[in-house]
Amino acid sequence: MRIKRHYFKSWIFLVAIIVFIIPNTAFAASTGTSNLLRQFGSGYSSAGGDYISASIANGGLNQPYHYYIEVPAGLNRLRVSIFDADVGRGSENDWLSGSWNTSCTYTLYDPSGTNRGSITGSATQGNNGAWQNILSTTSNLIPGHWQLVVNMTSAVTTGDDLNGYGIRADNGDATTGGTELNVYAESFIPIGRVGTGSSTNTFYPYFTSGCTVDYNDWDGDNLSTHTYRSRTGENTGSFSGSGATAWRNNPILNYETDLINNDTGIWTWTGTYTDTGAGGNFGVFYAGNYQAADPPPTSQPQADTFRVYLPRDGAVGNVPNKPFITQKLSFVSGPNPPAVGNPTRVRVEIAVF
Could you tell me which of 2, 16, 214, 252 has the fewest CB atoms within 10 Å of its CB? Predict the structure, then answer.
């Protein structure tokens, strides 16, 4: 650790505690087949709940959603699949606005930017209520972050229907003997509820910097609630969701300090959306660091936001296999606070899980 010379001279004792958590091989899917991701076609107004993919004329950004798949070196096969890749083939996963006039493309790019496969779903195309592979291959598995683009913008369709879908990435084996890959959004998550009642989705923001975190959500119609929990459990809380056709900013202050940082890494966020039967309650969620501008967002991906990981299944729970770090800085001897020209000794304890 480097201390700026113009601040104070110091001896630092560094104690590193490393704990390895061996990940279970993974199971099932990166998202399940209920409480799906949901986004509107660009013909819909952002008042319907989807600020990102609604048309610019209606106040949105008219942008596709971006997801990334972490592909490790040495993987022997890569399979990427979409659940319910249609839009409106009689499935309860979609929602009708007028007539079924919406399509959606799912396109997978490897780290070099090469298009490795695509699916187009509509009321006549796609795999209704089942998994459909975009890619299943053993060749040219470039390690790194593969990008999945889910596009319902005006370049694809002028429709205004809602599309519910799931994403799965693994080594081709969905059993307990297989390997499931981490999938994250960059940087927005589209969620909501179709029909009377409530639905709950859980995701995992990955905090890597800053002393504050901003949770931002759009158009919860005052019928959504949100809770968060850090990996160590030292930071927990809840807040009400946004009002109709509005963003709400919910800052979490000082989750780390100059002396103690116990919560860098994966957190858990849970959102519950309630629909009164008036046609659905849909929203958009993202988490930003201390430099992130308050909503509304101006780009996709939004600057200074954190990754938001999709849940994974298995005996160890739904938390993605990602590290988290705790750090504690404690005074040992010398001037406190430090003074220029006088040694101060501190102890830095770091644990990596």
Answer: 2
In this predicted structure, what is the pLDDT of residue 258?
A: 66
DSSP 11-28: EEEEEEEE---PPPP-BS
Q: Which of 353, 307, 314 is nearest to 20 (CA)?
A: 353
The pLDDT assigned to 318 comes to: 76
pLDDT at 256: 65
Amino acid identity of 286?
Y
Asked if 235 and 252 touch (Cβ cutoff 8 Å), the reply is yes
Query: How high is the pLDDT of residue 11?
Result: 43
Q: What is the pLDDT of residue 81?
A: 94
331 alpha carbon, distance to own chain's centre: 37
> For residues 217 and 81, is the Cβ–Cβ distance under 8 A?
no
Whether the Cβ atoms of residue 102 and residue 161 lie closer than 8 Å to each other: yes
DSSP string, 156-206: T-----EEEEEEEEESS--STTS-BPPEEESS-EEEEE-SSEEEEEEEEEE
Q: Which DSSP symbol is given to 48?
A: G
Place of tokens 């509005």: 246
61 in Cβ contact with 188 (< 8 Å)? no
Considering the entire predicted model, what is its pTM?
0.87
Q: Retrieve residue 174's tokens.
A: 């969905």
Cβ–Cβ under 8 Å, residues 224 and 238: no
Q: In the chain, which residues have pLDDT < 50?
A: 1-16, 18-28, 314-316
Q: Euclidean distance between the first and final Cα of the chain, in Å?
A: 20
CB of 52 closer than 8 Å to CB of 300: yes
Q: How far apart are CA 311 and CA 261, in angstroms?
A: 25
The full length of the chain comes to 353
pLDDT of residue 317: 52
| Contact indicator for 182, 312 with CB cutoff of 8 Å | yes
Q: Which residues of 203-237 are buried (b: 16+ CB within 10 A; e: fewer)?
A: bbbbbeebeebbbbbbbbbebbbbebbbbeeebee
| Residue 257, pLDDT score | 66
| Paired tokens of 172 | 């081709």
**Within a 10 A sphere around the Cβ of 305, how many other Cβ atoms?**
23
Measured from the Cβ of residue 107, the count of other Cβ atoms closer than 10 Å reads 17
